[in-house]
Amino acid sequence: MAAKAKGFAVAEPLPASTDASGTSVSVRGLGHSYGDLRTIERLDLDVPAHAALGVVGPSGCGKSTLLELIAGLQEPTRGELLLGEAGDPAGRLSRCAFMPQRDLLLPWLSAIDNAALALRNRGVRRAAARREAGALFERFGLAGFERAKPAELSGGMRQRVAFLRTLVAGKPVLALDEPFASLDAITRAEMQEWLAGALRADPRTVVLVTHDIEEALYLCDRVVVLSARPAKVVTELAAPQPRAPERDDAVTDPAFVAIREQAMHALREASR
Amino acid sequence: MRRWLLPIGLLAALLGAWQIAAGSGALADLLGLESFLVPSPAEIASALWDNRSLLTENAWVTLREMLLGFGCALVLGVAFALAMHLSTTLRDAFGPLIVASQTIPIMVIAPILIVWFGFGIGPKLAIVALICFFPITVNALAGLRSADPEAIKMMRTLDASRLQILWRVDVPTALPQTFSGAKIAAAIAPIGAIFGELAGSDSGLAHLIVQDNAQLQISREFATVVVLAAMALALTGLVALAERRIVTWR
Question: What does pTM read for this prediction?
Fold first, then answer.
């Protein structure tokens, strides 16, 4: 059912984010605890506007918490978080779209109404919201599925609707929490290639949390490896540049493989 | 098909056995009673037909008590559940009282309400609403609180207000469980109406049953019971039908 990634080459730009020049993400001396449980020791991260940062680390090391902090869903215990100029939670919420690990499509809404949620929340009328979100369905390989309920879609399609929903929100920063973790290997590879294309056509500032080092190196400019909880940066790697647009070519490039092994080693050390 | 055939077949077999046992007078002999006190299904059916206008008239009274009481409980129950969902203070204040209200024996309350409000529809409506309120409120509140916290976070990043989250996430999440509560309420609504009428009434199916019993009109009494059961089934069926029309995503 899932359309081939190559089938929806991105030609036109995606929905315009609220500022064309982009928004940087800056994390300074960030610390976070749940009560006595320290989740994040101390983090300093800088993501320039329109750059993509990959975050990998052992399970339960606070990666998801980091994204929720960036998105303004939680407040740090220590330190500072800036999205552009905004440091307060409301300002961060208004600048950052968050794509959770599960697609979290609302089962009672059709695919198009799920994709248009951000517009509806801002008071756009249903017909206008559907028109705006619907314009993207074809490009996302979802044409003809506008009225389908989430239960009628394949895993890859649901994930694309969820990503469409995130993009339609029109926010300059995307926080992606293992967006493809629930997909099978083939669909995941297709979706990675597709996302890389989508971001080339419409750059956003991206923070991508993933278990998959290859995914992080393929989609991001830089990758940080975090330690086990409480999280701190173990090592930071630059992804090989330039990257071949075809995923298969990119990930088999010797330079890519070398950095992947280096990251793998760091991650193994961090997991000890 | 099988789901319908089996219970209908069983019912037909039971009615057939009853018809033979009562129609031949064997059942009355066994109980040591006059045969008119032990009517057969055929006699009950003819009593149903002969008394159709009397039964319809009184069924309408009971049906109105049931429907209005159930409707009041539905509106109040959902309103209470929403209020208690939105306000922790209200939840803490009302929660224990609503549970405690369940310990009030309705048979004891019913006569008092008759004394206060008379033989009209008022006390019956209050009794039906009182017993229907609890399952609706408790289930609706539990349903509202079961919304996926991750979905709520997702909505917050999509600029949703508290009310938009309530309307687009909490309420749809709560619908199936609210309907479960409403189905329980629909099944017990006739019991409330009957208690109300037994405590004091000048019309209604339970009023008719009391009269028939005193006059030894046993076949009409059975006919009345049949009508009452049919009404209870119809109300539960109506709620189930509404659920299928509204909760389409399951």
Answer: 0.81
